User: Fold this.
Amino acid sequence: MKTEIRERKELAVDLMEKLGIYKPYIKEFAENGDHTCFYENFAGFWVYQDKQLFNKMAEIELKYNCTVYAITHEITKFGECYSFLIVPEDDEDWENLVSKQDKYFFAFAYVWNKTYEPDSEFGSIIVQSFGGGIRRVG
Assistant:
């Protein structure tokens, strides 16, 4: 069933808590719609501080009718990638958005390959949490 932004945001807050994200970041996200963090090797920064990334996040949310609640940034052998952790509109897809196995989390994301955009896609990524931040490890 299709959901409202408010419902997706509530679930996003729960997922951020599950990931162990820094509580002040969660609070800002919950209270301010555009206060989403992106993470560089566990360190968090506000997306609105990077105009290009902020615009890409807004484009993804509008195009796919989803809510982005965190973003990781990586340089990989196949390009510079941003992994947008999302809550999709359809609540039938919510059951396994984030799951934990050992010290890692599997999270549903839209991965934007900035270097080679045709390789951008939805899928599960592996995330590690430490000190209130996250990073993609697989």
